[in-house]
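ESCALATION

Customer reports they have been waiting on this structure for their group meeting. Please prioritize. Original submission:
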Amino acid sequence: MKPQQGTALILGASGQDGAYLAQLLIRRGLNVHGTSRDKEVSSYIGLRRLGIYDRVTLHSVVLSDFRSVVTVLNNVRPALIFNLAAQSSVGLSFEQPVETIDSIMHGTINVMEAMRFLCLDAKFYNSGSSECFGNTSKERPADETTMFSPRSPYAVGKAAAFWAVANYREAYGLFVCNGLMFNHESPLRPPRYVTQKIVRGVVEIASGRASTLELGMLNCARDWGWAPEYVDAIVRILDLATPEDFVIATGETHTLEDFVAAAFACVGRNWRDHVIANPALHRPIDILYSSGNPAKAARLLDWKAQKKMTDIVGLLVDAEMRRCAAEGWKKGSGRGRD
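Update from on-call: job pushed to the front of the queue and completed.
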């Protein structure tokens, strides 16, 4: 089956990355289709906040249902397919391990098997995760050759999906790729993520609506990037003539304490005066240090992250202040769980 050139399908268009990716593809002049389990308007908050909800053709698809996947691929016939779907919270994966692993692994395989079944000559991007690597070392940040050591149900699912993509590429000759994405943030992140919990807590404290912020581990370290830049990297991956896997990262790692301190500094506060460490918020297993080496992306994609952690924190705090001002503080805090 020949695809419709200039047509892209985003599986998981209701999430942070899906919204920014749709925005980028529309700017490129592509005909963009998006999917979610629920086609209701309320499911696509990101698309609406970016003002592009009416410019994306939406479909209801359940990736674990092979017939559902075949139907949408047959109807849309996309030239580009981006898999950003499935449960995306590491913390939540410990509470829902079976659903998390199943949604990630089987959903990815179903898309590739549907491509094979339909003989659809499309390019496929699968969103992998830095969580696959587990703990990395300061001396050797993770690159495309680093062994996996997953430490959560989410990471187990992502690692399995990564190798499924590699297998389909080698066994069936499909143009399928993985992006091993390190942490990346934006104002579109749901409040259940710790970065949004921090930013919302800081703004509430600065406004006098709260005085303390409870957090779990502060010594864990991550490589934080900016989501709009990361979706640019994944589009460049499918621009290549041959399918390859890439680490997408900034190359800089900071502790969560650094993130917290930077957020409080944006409002002229000392974080130590407001943050309470709560061991009950610790995960059963966690990654203490995570760092990525984006050298391959710089070499082959001509891509390099421009915004680093302190830039990102400032943008997040500013966005949260604007959101609260626009809502007039009528709604509750909406602070998420660590």
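Sent to customer with the following note: The two ends are 46 Å apart (CA to CA).
Escalation resolved.
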